[in-house]
Amino acid sequence: MSTPSQTTTLIKPEVLYTGLFIVGLIAPFAIYPTFLMKLFCFALFACAFNLLLGFAGLLSFGHAAFLGTAGYVCGLMVRDVGVTPEIGILAGTVAAGLLGWVFGVLAIRRTGIYFAMITLALAQMVYFIVLQVKATGGEDGLQGVPRGHLFGVVDLSDNMAMYYLVYAVFSVGFFIIYRTIHSPFGQILKAIRENEPRAISLGYDVSRFKLTAFIISASLAGLAGATKTLIFQLASLSDVHWHTSGEVVLMTLLGGLGTILGPAVGSATIITLQNELADKVGSWVTVIMGSIFVLCVLAFRRGIVGEIQALIHRAGIR
Amino acid sequence: MEILGVPTALLGSQLLVGLINGSFYAILSLGLAIIFGLLNIINFAHGAQYMMGAFIAWLALTRFEINYWVALIAAPLLVGLFGVILERTMLRKLYKLDHLYGLLLTFGLALIIEGIFRDQFGISGESYEVPEALSGGIHLGFMFLPIYRAWVVVAALTVCFGTWFMIEKTKLGAYLRAGTENPQIVQALGINVPLLITFTYGYGVALAAFAGVLAAPVFQVNPLMGSNLIIVVFAVVVIGGMGSILGSIVTGIGLGLVEGLTKVFYPEASAVVVFVIMVIVLLVRPAGLFGKA
């Protein structure tokens, strides 16, 4: 699954990212903060997913398991154990990372289509476990999770305080992904994606690199999930469902596989669409999501950001 | 009568349920394997097409009073035709790309199909009456055997072995096997490979719809009946490996039986037992029980 990921020459990346960062700082004064928070959670989720699919070429169809598990762990820690929110988020992230390690060790034994099927099946197993275990509240999900006080000081029940926490979490997560992609480690991942046998013959322990990428991706997906639980004060069963795994694939595909900003753009588009359409078309939302999927695969494989990059690239050549 | 402290009637009926589920796993994983062999695509829409088969049978009976036996032939033909159209208009464009795009496209198609049916029929589920000729049951002494359930197993196995025979013993099957090995050479020998591919996809999809019609009187006819099943079938495919037709059938039936037994001895685990077996197989024999390494 290769997509060119050249950075544009017209705008320096530093300028672009600083500009976007400032937009994020002032955004809650113009847009409903809860909506923005949801958007950032899914953007981080999709960016984490893209690290795996876009840069290592591994299609995980079970990423909802990490989002959901971290959400439940964070919720249980904060609500029932009574830890502060940052410990809850940390616990959720670590739990997702550990789960990612287990998934990774198993799924990496096969490649390609089998990899996707294995991750999907493992995630479905997690779904059934979450459904049956008493602590998770079954079909009702985990409700009444308090947002609490960050470091025991900042009251997060204030939406603005919560927003800036979410924004900080997103920025840190995004930075980690950015650095990972641009590190020697990221270059090796790309080499594995492009030509695995050659990477092996160059002496790289391919399985170890894939596993590391998988654990990073799962942990960051967990970071998004744990934060999401705090925002909405609940962890729901739908977060572990395969629909969510499919959704993150769609977000990444629509935004642009293997581009850095693509998944964020894609998730913003999908979340906005869902928000706008939910009341108007009811169950047709699934049909629309499916249609976008089909369109993306058939005619729009570079995604939004990929197309823009290609346009700029062409303009640059002239 | 008891075996290991479990009444034989309970054991027998759960094994029968397991055998039925296993038959569905077998037909569905067989279809997936045939499609994968020639198209290199995992057909994510397989569950949705299975559901379509069940719904067509239900619609035919309730709206047009078309009986079960006609539906058992007509529904697979209709859904198979639908598959042929999908292959001709969409899947065909993806063969030169990474195989994962095929998975993503069929996933999107599954969402569309499921969404439309959910909008039309809700998610509550409809029941389909067992056809008269197959209603009732037989007392076997240790358990009660509903005739329809026995019929499902017999019909499913007949179709599975029929498919095996067609692929292993007929000329068409020989083309198919050759096409799986090396499509270019087969094409060069003057065989119409694109047509073969279309036919194969249509046949695989028709198998799913056939399973759907068989399932209609056993389970509730529900827009989500396929998507829940297909993920288990994926695990079955990982366990068995897609290299062998007989392997798919044996793995499907075997896992159905194991699931049935788990329902008797440790019901809490029955939903996950197939996945647990998948994990063990991945650790011990990563290529799958019948897979080529």
TrEMBL record, chain A:
Q: Look up keyword Cell membrane and say if it applies.
A: yes
Q: Please provide, alphabetically and separated by semicolons, the GO molecular function terms listed in this UniProt record.
A: branched-chain amino acid transmembrane transporter activity
Q: Which domain of life is it from?
A: Bacteria
> Keyword Cell membrane, does the record have it?
yes
Its record classes its membrane topology as: Multi-pass membrane protein
* Coiled-coil spans in chain: none
Where is this gene product found?
Cell membrane
Q: Which Pfam families match?
A: BPD_transp_2
The residues that cross the membrane are: 15-32, 39-67, 87-106, 113-133, 161-181, 211-236, 248-269, 281-300
One GO cellular-component annotation of the UniProt record comes to: plasma membrane
Q: Provide the alphabetized UniProt keywords.
A: Cell membrane, Membrane, Transmembrane, Transmembrane helix
Cleaved signal peptide residues: none
Protein name per UniProt: Branched-chain amino acid ABC transporter permease
What is the predominant subcellular site recorded for this chain? membrane
PANTHER family annotated for this entry? ABC TRANSPORTER ATP-BINDING PROTEIN, HIGH-AFFINITY BRANCHED-CHAIN AMINO ACID TRANSPORT SYSTEM PERMEASE
UniProtKB/TrEMBL annotation, chain B:
Keyword annotations for this protein? Amino-acid transport, Cell membrane, Membrane, Transmembrane, Transmembrane helix, Transport
Record's keyword annotation contains Membrane: yes
InterPro entries in UniProt = ABC_transp_permease (IPR001851), BCAA_transport_permease (IPR052157)
Query: Which GO terms label this protein's molecular function in UniProt?
Result: transmembrane transporter activity
State the CDD domains in the record.
Answer: TM_PBP1_LivH_like
Q: Name one GO cellular component term.
A: plasma membrane
UniProt main location, coarse: membrane
Q: Which GO terms describe its biological process?
A: amino acid transport
**Which chain regions cross the lipid bilayer?**
24-45, 66-86, 98-117, 148-167, 231-258, 264-284
What would be one Pfam family of this protein? BPD_transp_2
- Membrane-related topology note: Multi-pass membrane protein
Q: Superkingdom of the source?
A: Bacteria
Alphabetical list of PANTHER family matching this protein: ABC TRANSPORTER ATP-BINDING PROTEIN, BRANCHED-CHAIN AMINO ACID TRANSPORT SYSTEM PERMEASE PROTEIN LIVH
Q: Which family does it belong to?
A: Belongs to the binding-protein-dependent transport system permease family. LivHM subfamily.
Q: What is this protein called?
A: Branched-chain amino acid ABC transporter permease
